[in-house]
Write a structure and sequence with these properties.
313 residues, alpha+beta, Alpha-lytic protease prodomain-like, 4-stranded mixed beta sheet, 8 helices, elongated
């Protein structure tokens, strides 16, 4: 497990560092293209890319800390750090969307005119190509290492590409007909709403994880199906499932014949765990408790201090 974490952390770090270099180059290129090419939209797009650099730092710190193995102070692991970092990326996206939207609305209200050159169009086109390629590469790595933080950062790259698309169409329209310069601002306003939607979704998923929200009903149903499919399981109760760092942690009580020995009950619990680990995707931790059926068998275990007859494995 530690080797797997080390490999996934290395892959996530590598793709994020590639993003850092790409963002630094694009910021300089777009800023120069915006100033020399007389494009306010491209200058604003460069400012959006600056937020990507801050996001990359958050991702690097969150990924390294969140993928650490469990220790005495963190018996459930450090995955919640990754969840928290993912939420911060969502906040950055929301902030970028509000900034772009406010600037666009202000330009529309003031009827701001700008007459960009072909240099601004080339810079915007290059930004679209680089950021879209970076998004596809990052999202592929994020899916492979099952990291919601890397996936969130991928969408930040996509948001930067979308803002560059708005600039590209706005600059292109202004080059075709100077009277169409306002299209740049309208396009930016639409893109800001798309970015805002993605940012809210990422932040909401992080909040759900931090508040131990149960997974989708179909995931719970699949877990129940797996538990009841094991021979010897008479029933189950107290099923609890939460998500941490994009992976599930769960515990459940299964009911077995009261006449079974501790070893036999433990064996059934191991079969349940084996089925769950095999069938449930992204399952990180399983705890199965064994409770005897008081109506079966003639050798029920002695009652504990709480008055319940139970055996835990």
């Amino acid at each position: 497990m530690q080797n797997s974490n080390a490999e996934s952390t290395g892959a996530g770090t590598s793709v994020t560092l590639i993003g850092v270099v790409a963002n630094a180059v694009l910021i300089a290129f777009k800023l120069a293209g915006g100033i020399l090419g007389h494009s306010q939209g491209l200058i604003a797009d460069a400012a959006h890319s600056v937020s990507d650099l801050f996001t990359d730092v958050v991702v690097l710190v969150g990924l390294k800390a969140g993928r650490k193995a469990a220790d005495q102070d963190h018996p459930f692991g450090h995955a919640r750090i990754e969840t928290l970092s993912s939420g911060m990326v969502g906040i950055f996206l929301i902030g970028a969307a509000l900034y772009i939207g406010t600037e666009a609305a202000s330009s529309i209200y003031r009827h701001t005119e700008c007459h960009p050159t072909w240099l601004a169009l080339i810079a915007a086109g290059l930004s679209i190509a680089v950021k879209e390629a970076l998004y596809r590469y990052t999202v592929r790595v994020g899916r492979r290492i099952k990291s919601p933080l890397i996936m969130a950062n991928a969408w930040h790259h996509r948001s930067d590409a979308l803002s560059s698309v708005a600039v590209f169409f706005g600059v292109g329209a202004a080059r075709i007909n100077p009277d169409w310069h306002v299209l740049d601002s309208y396009a930016a306003l639409i893109v800001s709403l798309l970015i805002l939607k993605v940012g809210i979704e990422i932040l909401w998923r992080s909040i759900q994880e931090l508040t131990d929200t149960a997974p989708r009903p179909e995931v719970l149903e699949e877990i129940r199906r797996c538990i009841t499919a094991v021979d010897g399981v008479l029933g189950h109760h107290d099923l609890k499932v939460r998500s941490s760092g994009g992976q599930y942690q769960m515990e459940a009580h299964i009911v077995v014949k009261g006449s079974l020995t501790v070893i036999e009950g433990h064996g059934i619990a191991e079969e349940v765990e084996s089925c769950l680990n095999k069938e449930i995707e992204d399952l990180n931790q399983v705890i199965i408790h064994v409770d005897p059926d008081r109506r079966s068998g003639n050798r029920p275990p002695p009652e504990g201090a709480d008055g319940r007859r139970s055996e835990d494995s």
